[in-house]
Amino acid sequence: MNIFKAFETDIRKLLEELAAEGAIPAGLDSSRLTVEPPREASHGDLSTNAAMILAKPAKMAPRALAELLVAKLKGRADVASVEIAGPGFVNLRLTPDVWRDRIRDVLTAGTAYGDSELGAGTPVNVEYVSANPTGPLHAAHGRGAVFGDALAALLQKAGYAVTREYYINDAGAQVDVLGRSTFIRYREALGEQVGEIPAGLYPGEYLKEVGQALATRDGNRWVGTDESEWLPACRDFAIGMIMGWIREDLGALGVTMDVYSSERALVTAGAVQTALAALEERGLIYTGVLEPPKGKKPDDWEPRPQTLFKSSDFGDDVDRPLKKSDGSFTYFANDIAYHYDKYRRGAASLIDVLGADHGGYVKRMQAATRAISGGEAELDVKLCQLVHLMQNGQPVKMSKRAGTFVTLRDVIDQVGRDVVRFIMLTRRNDQTLDFDFAKVTEQSKDNPVFYVQYAHARCRSVLRHAATALPQLDQTPASLAAAANLARLDSEEEMALAKRMATWPRVVEAAAEAHEPHRIAFFLYDLASDFHALWNRGRDDASLRFLIEGDAELTTARLALIAAVATVIASGLSVMGVEPVEELRS
């Protein structure tokens, strides 16, 4: 149960009652009405802006409308107190049993606690990673992979029908460069002295593996042949082999895609012409001459007629070219075709997770998506900032195999999948992230993955000890939910835990609506902090310990609380793609 949504629904009903009584006008728009935790915990448990947003259309003073609501809310059995704050906010304190009942909700639902029908099965396509198949994934790709995967899981938990997709950029100049680079390594594998790799080609050591594999497969078949023969063979072989590595690395990170889409296959199938024809039918393509880009000197600029898309009609800064001077399509034209294809496959809600260097791409692609779908599709582009890899505060050296960067697999192999996934979600995607190998593995409160996992491990430890000390007690969640007298939970720390867990359904919905999976990591850290506070109080005050000799009723209630905490942590970690640990070892 989402207690905040429940009260939001109830307050709307109270407003309808007030309208029926003639106290306020009927038909007021309450779409901006919210019920959420107050900014200051001392102000209560819930706060609503109902009077603030409805006062003007109701032609009333906010506090006057608030007083009408307060009078209605005071009669509720689950409301301990209600008061007006500031210019007209209504703050409520709920009875302790409201929060205790949420513990039963957790035990009954298990890790499905927090599942929502918010999305109502709406199809959402989340495209992420989509690294050019020209080399192994690096750490920044890992951040996009974790962010996209956690966002997809979050949207699924919130009730959306999610498709996880990887777009293979296997058309264009960069894969031809890959083919030429592979040909050099192929000749090298056959014994030829190739010398230094020419500028403009890929120098990474990883291409030696590709060249050797090609030589093993084909022998000297391509030696002495024309580029028109060897280039497609080398390019396709390298793409296939590198995509194999990418899939393996994503698998090591716990990422499984539903769809791999090929740019080349899309282009070959005529999808670009189809998309541009749809735009042309709407009168959105014309031949024109663009103004010189900002910063260009007159002698650097050659004005020429171009095929342009009316991107500026849909919020972009300028119109965008669809064809190059040689008549071939631009990357933008291909991207329009790809997003049109995703829309035609049934997703009107599209999310692209991209690197920070794609900032200039956002407006034009959002404009194209709106245009090509006739306004039916919306595109949200989430940019992931850089990851700074360090060891004890010092930058980590580059990978020899990759040549210019640290591979994602290097990071996973050093600290493990769960650490990588959790730490990548401890900052907003649009903020740079410091990933210090020493700090992300230390056992301290400053390491959030350890702190959260330690809370889960402590919960499981208590339950294991209880199974030994009280073998007759049935610890199954259903039995604890039925047997526990939760009224025995009355300490400040116990109620803080119950209240924190009760916010989990709200966190899920809010994070899903905002497309911000980092909120899950923040919530789990706060929940872990509340639990550790209770644990530490128990060390100082024996009456607050979980297993109380001679008081089976209180012990059972506290075990129900502990089991619920472990369950909510596991629920949150599952969204992040992290496995909860049963015990931690030094």
TrEMBL record:
EC number: 6.1.1.19
DALR anticodon binding domain mapped to chain residues: 452-584
GO MF annotation list: arginine-tRNA ligase activity; ATP binding
Keyword Cytoplasm tagged: yes
Keywords: Aminoacyl-tRNA synthetase, ATP-binding, Cytoplasm, Ligase, Nucleotide-binding, Protein biosynthesis
The reaction(s) this protein catalyses: tRNA(Arg) + L-arginine + ATP = L-arginyl-tRNA(Arg) + AMP + diphosphate
Enzyme class per UniProt: ligase
Domain Arginyl tRNA synthetase N-terminal, chain residue ranges per copy: 5-94
Protein name: Arginine--tRNA ligase
